[in-house]
Fold each of these.
Amino acid sequence: MWDPFAISQSKMASDSDILTNDLEEEQEVSVTLPKVPLYKRALNFLFKNYLPIGLIFLVFFGILVPAPGVFLSKYPTHYICIVGLFLHSGIKLRTGEIKDAFRAYKALLLQIIIIMFLTPLIGVKLTELLPFGGRVEKDFSNGQNGTMNSTREKMNDSHVEKTVHSVLGPEAFRTGIQMYFIVPCTISAGVVLVGQAGGNAALALMTTVICNLMAVFTVPLMIKWLMSFEGVKIDIVQLLIKLILTVLVPLLVGKALRFIPHVRYFVKQNTNILKCISVTLLIMIPWMKVSLSSHHGAFKDINIAGAFAILAYGLALHLGFLIINYGCSVLLRLEQAETKAFVILSSQKSLIVAVTVLSLLPFDGAFQGLLTLPIVIIHLEILVVDAFIVTYWHNRTEQNIARNKEVRTNREELSKTKIVNENGIAIHVSTV
């Protein structure tokens, strides 16, 4: 007798064999895929981590072998680096998606307030409480009685420091850290991290553009308001003019060049090369400053314990900013993508802007090297911490996507009607 269930059972067995064979073929293909050579993986790792690796290497190189950095410091190299950095930032600046960020106007407005005013205020005032070493100026003795003339009012003449014993380091470290927390959010790293975390990239880009344009005008005022330099007069107008010429003008010129089709095509085809050039220009600035400081013996009294103490302080302050910003995002009831952009951007500071402003202040190169060292230490630490946070967010997003996909699959299965014959053979008939 003709048995339809037997035919169905035979067909199902045949389909099962075909599926098994397909899986075996896929496994064979996956096994035979060529392995990426070790040198290519190493180059890929170096490219992705060029900034931290380059900073660490050149800082130590500048301390141990200061001569090359000192030689370049004799020329206006740091101005060339600054102009090149912001010219590249302008060329890479894509503002087409910015209009989408206005939908999250609450997050945008609060972000600007936190980045430009709240975190500078907290960072500067808390850093004032730390017990950094005092400063004594160069010895200008008359050669007869060995007495030292007081030069504290003439700090801009020498800037050579002898540190009072302090675990945290010299007084210049305090000034450098305070300057770091005054500047706005990162120009490119923050937007990249937000994108990797699955955050609102348009909001991150809009925040970055507004804050860094505002910083040209607000940073000099914040320096005047929050910081004091013993014996040194900061000309706010002159600093503002320098920032406009070295930051704002190259940024706008770069953005204008982007409208030229050939330039846009060239940038698209050479993205990796331009990125490496930009990072190289960035790490050259602190390298030259650190080299000058090492050449003048400014690092002789600095110990390893001080570096770890600065790391601990930077970590504590950054974690505090993360907690505050996450709490604000909860109060505003922001969406998950907006929360990621809000927390990351509001907690970061720009190394580019910090070293740019420091290089424009009326200090000599040796003193600027002391100002730069703690900034580099804290910035690298923040990048590492945020990379872990972004990885965690990314993995959670992937898990949620997989979970939602599984739920949809289960619902589709439940939408089917199961018919079972007397032999226990199941036939699935779709109700769709």
Amino acid sequence: MNANDKKVLENLVKSYVAVYPIKDSFKKDYFNYPIEKINEVINNLFEEIQSKATAKKSKPKSKFKVPEVEKMSTKEEAKDYYLNNMIYDRTSSEAKKKLIDFYLKEDLKKIYSLLNEKKASNNLNKTDLLNQIDLYFDNIDRAKKF
């Protein structure tokens, strides 16, 4: 609820309270609740919204899904992580899809950036990022064979 919504509710309550003394001039079902009940409900609503807002602010959300990736800071750590956790059967599109679904784009961008020592383009999707990471290791293997 934003500040404008809060003002609207407060104005509605003020109007209700102002007109309540002459409630007999209106239909019976217009004023079903006493002023105390209205104030109690509104206060509870504001408290609930405030507590939810506080709870959201108190836990910082990481943009990474995998904590190990978030902690990586060197090319060697990225290589080790890839070799220990991201090897999959490249002939199986299902295995590749499973791996892509496991990681967030930010995870793959960080691994890519550490390996290539340059920032990953925002235009790359998760499949492109994984392909580029795989290509990095393919090129290393090819160079070793010479």
Amino acid sequence: MASGKVTAMACLVMFMVFCADFNSVMASTAKPPACCQPNHIGQCNLSNKNDMVRCNDYCISRCRGGECKIRDGKHVCECYC
């Protein structure tokens, strides 16, 4: 019975290491925000507060923040100048 617990624990640790490594790869390949222009970050609905917060959080690292806007009929995250 003990070997089953050890195996389960080892699998859990390997899964956690894999997830942490995958997360760092995804974060490092993300495109940095471009100020003064629209950024395509996926869904960015003007009426959805969570989308507005996500857009602002995305832009704040390089710009003064941002908000969801409609440009050419598409919902985009526009970072402030």
